[in-house]
Amino acid sequence: MLEVSELTKSYHKVRGVKDLSFQVESGTAFGFLGPNGAGKTTTIRLLMGFMKPDLGSARIWGLDCWQDRAELKRIISYLPGELHFMEQFTGQEFLDLIEGMHGAHETIRKNQIDLLRILELDPSQGIRKMSKGMKQKLGIIAALMLDSPVLILDEPTSGLDPLMRKTFIELILEEKKRGKTIFMSSHHFSEIERTCERVGIIRDGELLAIQDIALLKQKERQTFDIEVGGEEDAEFLRQSGLTLYPLDHHKFTIQVEGEQELLWKTLAQIQVKRFQQGSLELEEAFMHYYHSSLRGDGT
Predict the structure, then answer these.
(1) How many domains does the chain have?
(2) ABC transporter domain location, by residue (predicted)?
(3) How far apart are CA 191 and CA 170, in angstroms?
(4) Is residue 296, in this structure, part of any structural domain at all?
(5) Domain range for residue 86?
(6) CA–CA separation, 217 vs 189, rounded Å?
(7) How many CA atoms lie less than 13 Å away from 192 in the CB half-sphere?
(8) Same domain, 123 and 231
Protein backbone atom coordinates (compact mmCIF):
# COMPACT_ATOMS: atom_id res chain seq x y z
CA MET A 1 0.00 0.00 0.00
CA LEU A 2 2.65 2.54 1.07
CA GLU A 3 6.30 2.06 0.14
CA VAL A 4 9.19 4.39 0.89
CA SER A 5 12.59 3.63 -0.63
CA GLU A 6 15.82 5.49 0.24
CA LEU A 7 13.86 8.73 0.58
CA THR A 8 16.14 11.76 1.09
CA LYS A 9 15.42 15.47 1.43
CA SER A 10 17.78 18.23 2.61
CA TYR A 11 17.17 21.92 3.34
CA HIS A 12 20.47 23.71 2.81
CA LYS A 13 21.95 23.80 6.33
CA VAL A 14 18.91 22.21 7.98
CA ARG A 15 18.73 18.43 8.16
CA GLY A 16 15.70 16.86 6.49
CA VAL A 17 15.48 13.08 6.11
CA LYS A 18 18.05 10.63 4.81
CA ASP A 19 17.69 7.19 3.19
CA LEU A 20 14.29 6.37 4.70
CA SER A 21 12.97 2.95 3.67
CA PHE A 22 9.86 1.26 5.04
CA GLN A 23 6.52 -0.23 4.03
CA VAL A 24 3.00 0.01 5.43
CA GLU A 25 0.71 -2.89 4.56
CA SER A 26 -2.84 -2.29 3.38
CA GLY A 27 -5.39 -2.12 6.19
CA THR A 28 -2.83 -1.50 8.94
CA ALA A 29 -1.82 1.50 11.03
CA PHE A 30 1.80 2.67 11.23
CA GLY A 31 3.03 5.00 13.96
CA PHE A 32 5.91 7.42 13.42
CA LEU A 33 7.73 8.40 16.62
CA GLY A 34 10.44 10.92 17.25
CA PRO A 35 11.10 14.27 18.95
CA ASN A 36 10.48 17.67 17.38
CA GLY A 37 12.78 18.22 14.44
CA ALA A 38 13.42 14.52 13.90
CA GLY A 39 11.94 14.53 10.39
CA LYS A 40 8.37 13.31 10.93
CA THR A 41 6.63 16.25 9.25
CA THR A 42 9.17 16.33 6.40
CA THR A 43 8.40 12.67 5.71
CA ILE A 44 4.67 13.38 5.66
CA ARG A 45 5.11 16.33 3.30
CA LEU A 46 7.04 14.08 0.94
CA LEU A 47 4.28 11.46 1.14
CA MET A 48 1.71 14.13 0.31
CA GLY A 49 3.69 15.36 -2.72
CA PHE A 50 4.19 18.83 -1.25
CA MET A 51 7.94 18.55 -1.85
CA LYS A 52 10.12 16.76 -4.38
CA PRO A 53 12.63 14.37 -2.82
CA ASP A 54 16.32 14.85 -3.56
CA LEU A 55 16.78 11.09 -3.84
CA GLY A 56 14.66 7.98 -3.48
CA SER A 57 10.93 7.60 -3.86
CA ALA A 58 7.63 7.19 -2.06
CA ARG A 59 4.65 5.37 -3.55
CA ILE A 60 1.07 4.88 -2.37
CA TRP A 61 -1.17 2.40 -4.20
CA GLY A 62 1.54 2.21 -6.83
CA LEU A 63 1.38 5.96 -7.49
CA ASP A 64 4.51 8.06 -7.16
CA CYS A 65 3.95 10.63 -4.41
CA TRP A 66 5.62 13.40 -6.42
CA GLN A 67 4.84 12.62 -10.05
CA ASP A 68 1.25 11.48 -9.36
CA ARG A 69 0.52 13.90 -6.50
CA ALA A 70 -2.68 15.26 -8.05
CA GLU A 71 -4.16 11.79 -8.50
CA LEU A 72 -3.12 10.76 -4.99
CA LYS A 73 -5.27 13.49 -3.44
CA ARG A 74 -8.32 11.46 -4.49
CA ILE A 75 -7.40 8.56 -2.20
CA ILE A 76 -5.73 10.31 0.75
CA SER A 77 -7.24 12.19 3.67
CA TYR A 78 -4.64 14.44 5.27
CA LEU A 79 -4.52 16.17 8.64
CA PRO A 80 -1.54 18.56 8.90
CA GLY A 81 0.36 19.13 12.10
CA GLU A 82 -0.22 22.88 11.88
CA LEU A 83 -3.78 23.80 10.93
CA HIS A 84 -4.44 26.97 8.96
CA PHE A 85 -8.06 27.84 8.24
CA MET A 86 -9.82 30.65 6.44
CA GLU A 87 -10.69 32.50 9.62
CA GLN A 88 -13.61 34.39 8.08
CA PHE A 89 -15.54 31.12 7.62
CA THR A 90 -17.73 29.34 10.10
CA GLY A 91 -16.91 25.71 10.76
CA GLN A 92 -19.85 24.64 8.62
CA GLU A 93 -18.82 26.84 5.70
CA PHE A 94 -15.35 25.29 5.80
CA LEU A 95 -16.74 21.74 5.88
CA ASP A 96 -19.13 22.58 3.05
CA LEU A 97 -16.17 23.84 1.00
CA ILE A 98 -14.21 20.62 1.58
CA GLU A 99 -17.29 18.54 0.79
CA GLY A 100 -17.90 20.46 -2.46
CA MET A 101 -14.30 19.93 -3.55
CA HIS A 102 -14.86 16.18 -3.28
CA GLY A 103 -18.16 15.93 -5.10
CA ALA A 104 -20.67 16.57 -2.30
CA HIS A 105 -21.50 12.88 -1.93
CA GLU A 106 -24.29 11.83 0.40
CA THR A 107 -21.84 9.59 2.26
CA ILE A 108 -19.57 12.55 3.03
CA ARG A 109 -22.48 14.58 4.43
CA LYS A 110 -23.63 11.67 6.61
CA ASN A 111 -20.08 11.13 7.89
CA GLN A 112 -19.79 14.84 8.63
CA ILE A 113 -22.99 14.86 10.70
CA ASP A 114 -21.90 11.77 12.62
CA LEU A 115 -18.43 13.17 13.34
CA LEU A 116 -19.78 16.54 14.48
CA ARG A 117 -21.92 14.68 17.00
CA ILE A 118 -19.19 12.32 18.17
CA LEU A 119 -16.62 15.09 18.60
CA GLU A 120 -19.20 17.47 20.10
CA LEU A 121 -18.44 20.39 17.80
CA ASP A 122 -20.87 23.18 16.94
CA PRO A 123 -19.99 24.08 13.33
CA SER A 124 -22.02 27.30 13.31
CA GLN A 125 -19.32 29.15 15.25
CA GLY A 126 -16.82 31.33 13.41
CA ILE A 127 -13.40 29.69 13.06
CA ARG A 128 -11.74 32.88 14.28
CA LYS A 129 -13.43 32.42 17.66
CA MET A 130 -12.65 28.72 17.99
CA SER A 131 -10.14 27.43 20.53
CA LYS A 132 -7.17 25.31 19.45
CA GLY A 133 -9.02 22.17 20.51
CA MET A 134 -12.10 23.10 18.49
CA LYS A 135 -9.99 23.80 15.41
CA GLN A 136 -8.32 20.42 15.86
CA LYS A 137 -11.72 18.74 15.94
CA LEU A 138 -12.67 20.60 12.76
CA GLY A 139 -9.52 19.34 11.05
CA ILE A 140 -10.20 15.76 12.14
CA ILE A 141 -13.77 15.94 10.86
CA ALA A 142 -12.64 17.39 7.52
CA ALA A 143 -10.18 14.50 7.10
CA LEU A 144 -12.29 11.58 8.29
CA MET A 145 -15.58 12.55 6.65
CA LEU A 146 -14.14 11.97 3.16
CA ASP A 147 -13.97 8.20 3.74
CA SER A 148 -10.62 7.97 1.91
CA PRO A 149 -8.84 4.60 1.91
CA VAL A 150 -5.59 6.17 3.15
CA LEU A 151 -5.26 8.47 6.17
CA ILE A 152 -2.10 10.50 6.78
CA LEU A 153 -2.29 12.23 10.15
CA ASP A 154 0.36 14.54 11.60
CA GLU A 155 0.00 14.99 15.38
CA PRO A 156 -3.77 14.45 15.12
CA THR A 157 -4.71 15.01 18.79
CA SER A 158 -2.69 18.16 19.41
CA GLY A 159 -4.84 20.46 21.54
CA LEU A 160 -7.45 17.84 22.43
CA ASP A 161 -8.34 17.07 26.03
CA PRO A 162 -7.90 13.49 27.35
CA LEU A 163 -11.57 12.63 26.79
CA MET A 164 -11.46 13.72 23.15
CA ARG A 165 -8.16 11.85 22.65
CA LYS A 166 -9.94 8.71 23.81
CA THR A 167 -12.77 9.44 21.37
CA PHE A 168 -10.26 9.96 18.56
CA ILE A 169 -8.61 6.61 19.30
CA GLU A 170 -12.01 4.93 19.06
CA LEU A 171 -12.62 6.62 15.70
CA ILE A 172 -9.26 5.39 14.35
CA LEU A 173 -9.96 1.85 15.53
CA GLU A 174 -13.27 1.99 13.64
CA GLU A 175 -11.46 3.23 10.53
CA LYS A 176 -9.09 0.27 10.78
CA LYS A 177 -12.03 -2.15 11.00
CA ARG A 178 -13.21 -0.70 7.70
CA GLY A 179 -9.88 -1.54 6.07
CA LYS A 180 -8.27 1.91 6.05
CA THR A 181 -4.50 2.28 5.85
CA ILE A 182 -3.20 4.80 8.39
CA PHE A 183 0.12 6.62 8.74
CA MET A 184 0.22 8.67 11.92
CA SER A 185 2.89 10.69 13.68
CA SER A 186 2.30 11.56 17.30
CA HIS A 187 3.86 12.64 20.58
CA HIS A 188 1.16 10.77 22.48
CA PHE A 189 2.56 7.28 22.85
CA SER A 190 -0.66 5.86 24.24
CA GLU A 191 -2.58 6.55 21.02
CA ILE A 192 0.16 4.95 18.89
CA GLU A 193 0.20 1.96 21.21
CA ARG A 194 -3.56 1.50 21.03
CA THR A 195 -4.03 2.09 17.31
CA CYS A 196 -0.89 0.93 15.46
CA GLU A 197 0.60 -2.49 14.73
CA ARG A 198 4.03 -1.19 13.82
CA VAL A 199 6.11 1.84 14.67
CA GLY A 200 9.04 3.63 13.06
CA ILE A 201 11.51 5.46 15.28
CA ILE A 202 13.22 8.45 13.65
CA ARG A 203 16.05 10.63 14.97
CA ASP A 204 17.88 13.45 13.19
CA GLY A 205 16.25 12.50 9.91
CA GLU A 206 17.41 8.88 10.02
CA LEU A 207 15.29 5.82 10.75
CA LEU A 208 16.58 4.01 13.82
CA ALA A 209 14.27 1.04 13.55
CA ILE A 210 10.97 -0.39 12.39
CA GLN A 211 9.39 -2.57 15.06
CA ASP A 212 6.15 -4.35 15.82
CA ILE A 213 4.86 -2.55 18.89
CA ALA A 214 4.43 -5.77 20.86
CA LEU A 215 8.01 -6.81 20.08
CA LEU A 216 9.37 -3.36 20.95
CA LYS A 217 7.82 -3.61 24.39
CA GLN A 218 9.01 -7.18 24.91
CA LYS A 219 12.50 -6.66 23.61
CA GLU A 220 13.53 -3.82 25.80
CA ARG A 221 13.38 -3.20 29.53
CA GLN A 222 10.95 -5.17 31.67
CA THR A 223 10.14 -4.79 35.36
CA PHE A 224 8.93 -7.27 37.97
CA ASP A 225 7.60 -6.59 41.46
CA ILE A 226 8.55 -9.28 43.97
CA GLU A 227 8.12 -10.03 47.67
CA VAL A 228 10.40 -12.72 49.12
CA GLY A 229 9.95 -14.94 52.19
CA GLY A 230 12.52 -13.44 54.52
CA GLU A 231 15.82 -11.68 55.06
CA GLU A 232 17.90 -14.62 53.86
CA ASP A 233 16.00 -14.64 50.56
CA ALA A 234 16.30 -10.86 50.30
CA GLU A 235 20.08 -11.02 50.79
CA PHE A 236 20.38 -13.78 48.17
CA LEU A 237 18.47 -11.53 45.78
CA ARG A 238 20.78 -8.60 46.55
CA GLN A 239 23.85 -10.70 45.76
CA SER A 240 22.40 -12.17 42.56
CA GLY A 241 23.61 -9.48 40.16
CA LEU A 242 20.07 -8.48 39.19
CA THR A 243 19.17 -4.79 39.03
CA LEU A 244 17.07 -4.18 42.14
CA TYR A 245 15.08 -1.24 43.47
CA PRO A 246 14.07 -1.77 47.14
CA LEU A 247 10.45 -0.99 47.92
CA ASP A 248 9.72 -2.03 51.50
CA HIS A 249 11.42 -4.64 53.73
CA HIS A 250 11.46 -7.77 51.56
CA LYS A 251 9.80 -6.18 48.53
CA PHE A 252 11.74 -5.17 45.41
CA THR A 253 11.31 -4.08 41.83
CA ILE A 254 13.59 -6.04 39.50
CA GLN A 255 14.57 -4.51 36.18
CA VAL A 256 15.70 -6.82 33.37
CA GLU A 257 17.05 -5.87 29.97
CA GLY A 258 17.26 -8.54 27.29
CA GLU A 259 17.58 -12.17 28.37
CA GLN A 260 15.86 -13.26 31.59
CA GLU A 261 17.86 -16.42 32.35
CA LEU A 262 19.51 -14.95 35.48
CA LEU A 263 16.12 -13.83 36.81
CA TRP A 264 14.56 -17.29 36.61
CA LYS A 265 17.65 -19.05 38.01
CA THR A 266 17.62 -16.71 41.00
CA LEU A 267 13.89 -17.07 41.68
CA ALA A 268 14.23 -20.87 41.64
CA GLN A 269 16.51 -20.67 44.69
CA ILE A 270 14.43 -18.44 46.99
CA GLN A 271 10.97 -18.36 48.52
CA VAL A 272 8.74 -16.02 46.52
CA LYS A 273 5.58 -14.77 48.26
CA ARG A 274 4.41 -12.45 45.49
CA PHE A 275 5.58 -11.91 41.93
CA GLN A 276 4.05 -9.62 39.33
CA GLN A 277 5.33 -8.48 35.95
CA GLY A 278 4.97 -4.77 35.34
CA SER A 279 3.43 -3.60 32.07
CA LEU A 280 5.91 -1.67 29.97
CA GLU A 281 4.49 1.47 28.42
CA LEU A 282 5.42 2.12 24.81
CA GLU A 283 6.81 5.49 25.85
CA GLU A 284 9.27 3.84 28.23
CA ALA A 285 10.29 1.30 25.60
CA PHE A 286 10.76 4.03 23.01
CA MET A 287 12.82 6.28 25.29
CA HIS A 288 15.03 3.38 26.31
CA TYR A 289 15.50 2.42 22.66
CA TYR A 290 16.16 6.02 21.67
CA HIS A 291 18.72 6.78 24.37
CA SER A 292 20.44 3.42 23.95
CA SER A 293 21.02 4.39 20.31
CA LEU A 294 22.36 7.79 21.35
CA ARG A 295 24.87 6.03 23.62
CA GLY A 296 25.81 3.65 20.85
CA ASP A 297 24.46 0.57 22.66
CA GLY A 298 22.54 -0.54 19.56
CA THR A 299 19.83 0.46 17.15
Answers:
(1) 2
(2) 2-229
(3) 10
(4) no
(5) 2-210
(6) 12
(7) 30
(8) no
